[in-house]
Specification:
Blueprint lengths: L11 H12 L2 H6 L4 H22 L4 H19 L6 H13 L3 H16 L7 H23 L3 H22 L1 H6 L7 H6 L7 H6 L3 H23 L8 H20 L12 H12 L2
Helix pairs in contact: 1-3, 3-5, 3-6, 3-7, 4-5, 4-6, 6-7, 7-8, 8-12, 8-13, 12-13, 13-14
Length: 286
């Protein structure tokens, strides 16, 4: 298990709060309007996700990464048995108790990271891609919705739609970055549909039919954003404010990607901080 990179390794919750604030990610903007207890709970979850993601993205050998993630499986077991050993899992323990979070969702996140750690993902099937999205994004959403205060069934519906939308947007945004790591998350069925026989990430990204594949993924992401928006209406007022902010920021990223097109994928797309703040004010205070 990695300990040197652990965000909470110095001072528990205080270190977690500082680490998230310094990152100034879309997540930070979305969570800043939560009440302090819920916000700190979300920051602890973020730190856990960052820790296991850093393991999966490290330059270590697959065996070392899988061993570190197996250590986190054991640590989650210890947490639920009431004996967490690390500062980060001790910070998570109170969150788990307070919001009755499901162990299965934390294990799903680790399982998603294991998919990345075991071997570089290249052209998964649609079913494999959907499973990956569920593990690395929807599981985080299911945890988050409980912390926000949404009923479980309604919160799960939001998480399962919005998580997929966010992850598909990430995949489209990070095509070049992922290819540099030897990864390609575009599904094999769509590559075949548009006559892309290559599977090497660099060859796929250079193919003239790449835009067709990306357009289909973007359309699927938009449908998932719409499903998430409809599901949010069934949740108690106010509980989905952070989710609405995240959805707005990432839908904006998707729109900017589509406007940029798929011939200049090295041109990084993002949402300026003032625009993120505007979304946070618009949706975080409603």
């Amino acid at each position: 298990m990695s300990t040197t990179a652990q965000p909470a390794g110095v001072a528990g919750q205080a270190a977690i709060n500082a680490q998230v604030a310094a990152a100034k990610t879309s997540f930070y903007w979305a969570m800043r309007f939560l009440p302090k207890a819920r916000r700190e709970a979300m920051f602890a979850v973020y730190a856990f996700c960052r820790e296991v993601d850093d393991i999966a993205d490290s330059e270590d050998a697959p065996e070392a990464k899988l061993a570190a993630l197996a250590g986190w499986r054991r640590e989650i077991d210890a947490l639920y048995e009431g004996t967490p050993r690390l500062p980060l899992s001790r910070a998570l323990a109170e969150t788990v108790r307070t919001y009755n979070l499901r162990r299965a969702d934390f294990i799903a996140i680790i399982a998603g990271m294991e998919m990345d750690a075991a071997a570089d993902i290249t052209a998964p099937t649609l079913a494999e891609l959907d499973l990956y999205c569920d593990r690395v994004a929807c599981a985080v959403g299911r945890i988050s919705a409980k912390i926000f205060g949404a009923p479980q069934d309604e919160g799960d519906r939001v998480a399962n739609a919005l998580g997929r939308a966010l992850q598909l947007t990430n995949i489209l945004r990070d095509l070049a970055e992922d290819a540099a790591r030897g990864r390609l998350y575009l599904p094999s069925e769509l590559l075949d549909k548009y006559g892309i026989a290559e599977r090497a990430p660099s060859a796929v990204l250079a193919h003239r039919a790449l835009s067709k594949v990306c357009e289909e993924i973007a359309a699927l992401a938009r449908r998932r954003y719409a499903e998430a928006g409809a599901a949010m209406k069934a949740c108690p007022p106010g509980t989905m404010r952070p989710a609405r902010v995240m959805g707005a920021v990432y839908a904006d990223i998707l729109a900017r990607l589509e406007k940029r097109g798929w011939r200049r994928i090295d041109d990084r797309v993002g949402v300026p901080a003032p625009v993120k703040l505007w979304y946070a004010l618009r949706y975080g205070l409603l």
